[in-house]
Design goal:
- By secondary structure, this protein is an all-alpha fold.
- The chain contains twelve helices and no strands.
- The longest helix has about 35 residues.
- The chain is rod-shaped, with a radius of gyration of 36 Å.
- The relative contact order is 0.14.
């Protein structure tokens, strides 16, 4: 009987075992790359050998840790970015904006008073002086310029008293009197002296308040950076929630995890709402800055006051929403924990 041909034939590679796990997706590989950092302190023991239960346990703990860390980071970044805009809205509405308008009112009243200073004594001059003094009191109560600004306003109020006194003395003199012209000339110098007159001092105070308004309404590089970082963190958390949802569906054959879906809704809904609040508030602040950027007089001051109130309406309510950022961060972390904790507990005590 002839011998069978025993030429070596390369063995076939073993067939893939049924039910073998699919190759990891890109997001899953990212999770595994982060595992050495995020898995520290998770409290999940490693298996003595390879096994599906051990892999699932580690990956669940890793995803839980990642979701909690990024949720906390989103809350912190969003809070500071939100406050960076809304924190100045209320001071602009109740202090710096009205202070600018009060200074404009005082300047306009003094200009009107000067036009009647040379006429015989009438009630119009005293009326305009009273308006100017009251407007300065409003500006001081609004905190215009801080302590230095209040002292400057007190100085201006004192000069207005001297100015009104000189005009009052002039109006008691005959029309062609030399003494009358002297009193009026001295009063005019108190009002219009180039560097130390009332008008010059009020102009300096207004410039300082305009600087405060511009600072409060600016959206500078730091705010752009803060909101950019916040948007990236929100996208990262949304991607992590979606990847975890896919992981749970593939591993446990459950189509949806309601807690993770709720976390995604809270994240996206809250971020969109707060972004709209910020856009509306900043637009109102920018409109207010444009309105107050030039000196106003007469009826334009009253119109500006009404328009400013309209531009900055509801800013207090929107600023108060900052407290909900902290609450939303806690809710996000609680939902992530609730969505993964049952699975982690199942695998924690599973024999290996």
């Amino acid at each position: 009987m002839s011998k069978q041909n025993t030429t070596d034939i390369p063995p076939r590679p073993p067939a893939a075992a049924p039910g073998r796990a699919r190759p990891p997706t890109a997001p899953t590989r990212l999770f595994r790359l982060l595992a050495p950092v995020l898995a520290r302190g998770t409290g999940t023991p490693d298996a003595a050998g390879p096994g599906d239960a051990s892999t699932t346990s580690r990956e669940l703990a890793l995803r839980r840790r990642l979701l909690l860390v990024v949720s906390a980071a989103v809350s912190v970044a969003l809070f500071f970015s939100y406050q960076g805009v809304h924190g100045d809205a209320d001071p602009l509405r109740i202090a710096s904006g009205p202070a600018v308008l009060a200074i404009d009112t005082a300047q306009h009243a003094l200009t009107e008073a000067q036009t009647t200073a040379a006429t015989p004594a009438t009630g119009e001059f005293q009326k305009q002086i009273s308006v100017a003094v009251q407007s300065l009191a409003v500006a001081a109560s609004d905190g215009a310029g801080g302590t230095t600004g209040r002292q400057a306003l007190q100085t201006v109020a004192g000069l207005i008293t001297v100015y009104a006194g000189m005009v009052g003395k002039a109006q008691l003199e005959p029309a062609d009197s030399v003494l009358r012209r002297a009193y009026l000339g001295y009063a005019t110098s108190i009002l219009a002296e180039k560097d130390s007159g009332i008008t010059a001092r009020l102009g300096l105070l207004r410039a300082e308040q305009r600087h405060v308004v511009r600072r409060q309404t600016s959206f500078g590089r730091l705010l752009w950076l803060g909101w950019s970082v916040t948007a990236l963190l929100v996208l990262a958390l949304a991607a992590a929630l979606a990847e975890t949802q896919v992981f749970l569906r593939d591993r446990f054959r459950r189509r949806y995890n309601r807690q993770l879906l709720a976390a995604g809704a809270v994240l996206l809904g809250g971020f969109v709402t707060l972004s709209l609040f910020t856009l509306w508030t900043h637009q109102g602040m920018a409109d207010t800055r444009g309105l107050l950027d030039r000196p106003l007089s007469g009826q334009a001051i009253t119109d500006a006051g009404r328009r400013t109130a309209t531009y900055l309406a509801n800013t207090g309510f929107r600023a108060a929403a900052a407290v909900w950022i902290a609450i939303g961060g806690i809710v996000l972390m609680a939902l992530a924990e609730a969505g993964l904790r049952p699975h982690i507990n199942d695998y924690r005590f599973r024999p290996r």
